[in-house]
Task: inverse folding
């Protein structure tokens, strides 16, 4: 890494960095440290804090409910990440291939991303509501009884679908840019060789797009773990029977509904570690397999 | 063709930095709010503003009525009041916690009866009985109301908006199905047969619905005269046992049967609005919900006539309903000079005229005897019989029976969530008894975690 000499003095550059550093420390590192500290205390609504050492963590290790929440979160993240990437790639490809009205298609695909998550969740609620939903009738005529207020697997599917739908726009923005960067000569060569349609997507475009796709996988993973809170909160509140109680909702409930701040902090530390490890693994893979040209 | 290892690390490093930053931000965004909370009594607080500040959770028309009460008080006494809407009971509680931490607290807090014990356990509130003027007669509150809000012989908080659960019926649907709307079902078995008749004749899609909320389970326990926990539902000490009497098994078995046969539909956990729309859209002919919904239901029932009926009991036993709703708490440790003003506002809020105004403007029932008397005198209940049903149900309840006192539990919200979640399990499981046992164990674990 080379250091670029833009500023004459270190003090000047330090001063310019100060606002950013201050905000980061006050709103990021200080709360992180505080949460870490609180995780070693029995701390609840307005009662005196008692130091309990690792008790909160031991509690989590032995709680079958929490294990289930971890399992659900991992499966949920996998479904959302795979779902988002696959659907977005396919949609991007279709938009890329179409000759007229590309802009219109793009806008309609990106539009859900512009909605606040809470609005998106409510839209989904009214579309799929078991008794009042617009789509409920047509789906039930296919022989499926829509009952996701009681049926855990159905609730999981609904929340996952909503989460995927919301994130597609973001992915398409990046993917269309990457796909447009694929040299036309490659496309022409492929077409001359008789490589058409989906085959061209899988064998030509995707390998070249790997840096973008890996970047999106990481962003989508973070999204699946943290950004899907609103869907769970508004659609299912973690239910039925905790079938959609992913870690981020679980920790919110512990902290702000049950007011067990100690346990909630321990949960946030665990969640942070899980996602941290996942990030690390993904970066290892990214560096090994990504194609950066040259 | 095969992707190769990147030769230009610049791109990947930049990505690394931005995404790690994003991950960290996302991970700590929530945890940051979970700051440490200092506890224990004896803290000194300063008021938020010069004026009296009241944090409440009343939105919509109820909030407007409350604002009106505040400005009427100002007109009468010259003391301004800020009624500040905090969006929900949970937010009032969360904000109070941060207020206790920061030292600037609101003068009055509207706390849902569900959270009462948690607030009492902070040791940071002063019983309102010590604040109310000496000439205030705390005997004016209806027995059932006063019973719940009295702790250790003292009125701990000022009861204000209180309600209980009743059953609403679609009178037109009842008539169409050949049922007598003037003789609505009184027990769960009767609800079932009425539902069968309604659904079999295609009058409505479902017989009955109600939000999956612990209050309804509590109300069934109350009418049956069964305690939910030991230590008199937490009013006489620290509870450790969750009781599952035979009546609870009967209730869950009925609930399961109704769900299996599509006579009942589950609107979702705490789905008050959904349940009400199922009723107003005429998908369900019966609805269990709060008495505070009377006004809204009458306004929204297009094309059919709503009737109100007492809550159906598990059996013929009718001991009494449990009270829901909220009361006003006052923090301890404010400058002494403020307590006189606060006492004056508390007293004002329980005056018969104010209670009557509140009742008419909200549907919560009048909770002082003088207010009930004056409403009766002006013939209000004859003109508005639905309001009368709720009050009669309350007053016919046996206030001295501990089962009619709503559970007062430290980890109330946690217990509530367990009961609501497990109810769904109980509805779906093959082995109902095992799930009820699991419910008992889970609630007792939560109680144990809080008290020990």
Result:
């Amino acid at each position: 890494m080379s250091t670029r000499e833009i500023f004459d003095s270190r003090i000047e550059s330090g001063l310019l960095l100060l606002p950013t550093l201050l905000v980061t420390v006050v709103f990021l590192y200080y709360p992180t440290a505080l949460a870490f500290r609180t995780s070693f205390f029995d701390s609840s609504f307005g009662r005196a804090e008692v130091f309990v050492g690792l008790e909160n963590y031991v509690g989590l290790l032995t709680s079958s409910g929490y294990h289930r929440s971890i399992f659900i979160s991992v499966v949920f993240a996998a479904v959302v990440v795979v779902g988002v990437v696959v659907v977005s790639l396919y949609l991007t490809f279709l938009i890329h291939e179409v000759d007229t009205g590309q802009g219109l298609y793009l806008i309609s695909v990106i539009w859900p991303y512009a909605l606040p998550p809470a609005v998106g969740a409510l839209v989904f609620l009214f579309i799929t509501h078991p008794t009042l939903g617009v789509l409920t009738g047509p789906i039930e005529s296919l022989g499926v009884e829509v009952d996701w207020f009681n049926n855990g697997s159905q609730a999981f599917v609904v929340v996952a679908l909503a989460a995927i739908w919301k994130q597609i726009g973001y992915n398409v923005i990046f993917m269309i840019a990457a796909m447009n960067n694929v040299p036309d000569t490659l496309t022409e060569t492929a077409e001359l060789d008789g490589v058409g349609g989906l085959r061209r997507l899988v064998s030509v475009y995707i390998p070249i797009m790997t840096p973008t796709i890996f970047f999106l996988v990481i962003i989508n993973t973070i999204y699946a773990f943290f950004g899907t809170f609103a869907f769970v909160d508004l659609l299912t509140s973690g239910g039925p029977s905790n079938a959609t109680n992913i870690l981020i909702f679980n920790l919110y409930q512990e902290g702000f509904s049950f007011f067990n701040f100690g346990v909630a902090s321990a949960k946030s530390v665990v969640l942070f570690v899980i996602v941290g490890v996942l990030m690390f693994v993904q970066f290892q893979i990214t560096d090994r397999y990504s194609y950066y040209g040259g | 063709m095969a992707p190769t290892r990147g030769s230009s690390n610049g791109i990947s490093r930049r990505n690394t930095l931005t995404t790690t930053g994003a991950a960290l931000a996302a991970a700590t965004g929530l945890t940051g709010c979970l700051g440490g909370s200092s506890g224990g009594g004896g803290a000194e607080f300063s008021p938020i503003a010069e004026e009296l500040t009241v944090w409440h959770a009343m939105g919509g028309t109820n909030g407007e009525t409350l604002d009106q009460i505040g400005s009427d008080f100002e007109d009468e006494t010259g003391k301004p009041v800020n009624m500040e809407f905090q969006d929900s009971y949970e937010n009032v509680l969360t904000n109070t916690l941060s207020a206790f931490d920061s030292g600037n607290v609101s003068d009055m807090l509207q706390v849902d009866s569900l959270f009462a014990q948690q607030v009492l356990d902070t040791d940071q509130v002063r019983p309102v009985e010590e604040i109310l003027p000496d000439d205030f007669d705390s005997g004016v509150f209806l027995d059932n109301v006063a019973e719940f809000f009295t702790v250790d012989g003292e009125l701990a908080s000022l009861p204000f908006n209180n309600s209980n659960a009743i059953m609403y019926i679609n009178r037109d649907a009842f008539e169409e199905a050949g049922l007598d709307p003037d003789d609505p079902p009184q027990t769960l078995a009767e609800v079932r047969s009425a539902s069968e008749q309604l659904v079999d004749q295609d009058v409505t899609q479902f017989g009955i619905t109600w939000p999956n909320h612990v209050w309804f389970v509590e109300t069934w326990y109350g009418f049956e005269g069964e305690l939910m926990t030991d230590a008199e539902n937490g009013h006489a000490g620290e509870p450790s046992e969750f009781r599952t009497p035979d009546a609870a098994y009967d209730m869950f078995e009925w609930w399961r049967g109704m769900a299996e046969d599509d006579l009942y539909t589950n609107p979702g956990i705490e789905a008050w609005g959904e349940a009400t729309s199922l009723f107003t859209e005429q998908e369900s002919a019966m609805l269990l919900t709060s008495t505070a919904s009377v006004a809204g239901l009458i306004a929204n029932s297009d094309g059919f006539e709503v009737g109100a009926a007492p809550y159906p009991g598990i059996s013929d036993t009718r001991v009494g309903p449990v009270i829901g709703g909220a009361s006003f708490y006052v923090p301890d440790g404010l400058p002494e000079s403020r307590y006189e003003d606060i006492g004056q506002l508390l007293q004002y809020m329980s005056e018969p005229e104010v209670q009557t105004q509140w009742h008419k403007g909200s549907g919560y029932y009048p909770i002082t005897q003088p207010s009930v008397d004056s409403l009766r005198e002006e013939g209000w209940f004859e003109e508005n019989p639905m309001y009368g049903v709720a009050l009669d149900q309350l007053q016919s309840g046996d206030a001295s029976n501990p089962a009619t006192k709503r559970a007062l539990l430290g980890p109330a919200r946690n217990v509530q969530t367990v009961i609501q979640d497990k109810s769904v399990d109980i509805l779906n499981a093959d082995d109902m008894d095992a799930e009820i046992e699991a419910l008992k164990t889970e609630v007792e674990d939560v109680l144990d975690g809080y008290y020990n």
